[in-house]
Amino acid sequence: MPQSIGSEPLYDPQYPARQVLRVIADTWTPIVLFCLKRGTRRFNELQRSIPDISRKMLTQTLRKLERRGLLDRLVHPVVPPHVDYTLTPVGTKFAEAVALLCEWAQKNKGILRRVNFND
């Protein structure tokens, strides 16, 4: 018998936790959300905050977050272009969840060291 919480079976694609994981379960989305949690940032600021992300991957991640309604992109009509990225209220809620995971990871470094992530 599958586990469930209330009347929602965990294997149901509409189960809320699965919906959240579909949004944040890639390498860069949680990191970008965490960086934007501190406030409005420009593209280059984000890239400096995440030195191992490529420009292409950062662009794709920001576009995905914008499509999902998690961030707003404001283009200022100046030369050179100036673009600000800010979390929406929904994006802020997702960033809060990511921050909780980050806090848990910080407190449980020992557990993480023992887990083999090289499957």
How is this structure best described in words?
The protein is α+β, with helices and mostly antiparallel strands and 119 residues long. It contains 6 helices and 5 strands. The protein has helices at residues 16-24, 29-36, 43-49, 55-67, 89-107, 109-114, and strands spanning 4-5, 8-9, 41-42, 71-76, 82-87. A 3-stranded antiparallel beta sheet has the order 3-5-4. Strands 1-2 form a two-stranded antiparallel sheet. β4 (71-76) and β5 form a beta hairpin. α2 crosses α5. The longest helix has 19 residues, at 89-107. 13% of the residues are buried.
List the keywords.
globular, 52% helix
Intertermini distance:
28 Å
Overall form: globular
Care to count the β-strands? Answer: 5
| Nearest-integer average pLDDT | 87
Strand percentage lies at: 15-25%
Structural class: alpha+beta
Spatial order of the strands in the main sheet? 3-5-4
H-E string: EEHHEHHEEHH
Q: For the CA atoms, what is the radius of gyration? A: 17 Å
Number of helices: 6
Helix content: 40-55%
Low-confidence stretches: none
Quick recap:
The protein has 119 residues and is α+β, with helices and mostly antiparallel strands. The protein has helices at 16-24, 29-36, 43-49, 55-67, 89-107, 109-114; strands at 4-5, 8-9, 41-42, 71-76, 82-87.
Secondary structure blueprint with pairings:
Elements: E1 4-5, E2 8-9, H1 16-24, H2 29-36, E3 41-42, H3 43-49, H4 55-67, E4 71-76, E5 82-87, H5 89-107, H6 109-114
Helix pairs in contact: 2-5
